[in-house]
Design a protein that fits this description.
Strand content: under 5%
Number of domains: 2
Helix content: over 70%
Radius of gyration: 18 Å
Structural class: mainly alpha
Order of helices and strands: HHHHHHH
Shape: globular
Largest sheet: none
């Protein structure tokens, strides 16, 4: 990657660059977990996907009130990582991600219950 491109990624610009817009559009267009599982490993290294997933799951556990010690045990992360993630939960981006996860879980739960009623 050229230096100019790398530097523009680091800068906090109000308007995303065309290649970031393309990536964001790709993410927005993924409709199912199956599509995500097929597409994302092609464009993002598996280790980075795992890291992102772990961060979101850690935040979910914190929001559910799981203790630091249980999180450390389950995920093998340090107290510092847990503490930092707790701070990130207050930021709108991670808060929005957690709300989407919770909404999907709620919808899945009720969809299952409704299907049981009619089967």
């Amino acid at each position: 990657m050229k230096k100019g491109i790398k530097k523009s990624l680091v800068k906090k610009e109000k308007k995303a660059s065309p290649f970031l817009n393309t990536f964001y559009q790709l993410i927005a267009d993924i409709k199912t977990p199956e599509e995500a599982e097929e597409i994302l490993p092609v464009v993002i290294p598996q280790t980075e996907i795992a890291s992102i997933a772990k961060k979101i799951y850690l935040a979910k556990l914190l929001k559910e009130g799981v203790s630091y010690s249980k999180i450390r045990e389950e995920l093998g992360v340090s107290s510092a990582t847990i503490s930092q993630t707790a701070k990130w939960i207050k930021k709108s981006g991670l808060k929005l991600a957690l709300n989407k996860v919770e909404a999907d879980e709620w919808a899945e739960k009720w969809s299952s219950k409704i299907k049981q009623l009619f089967s």
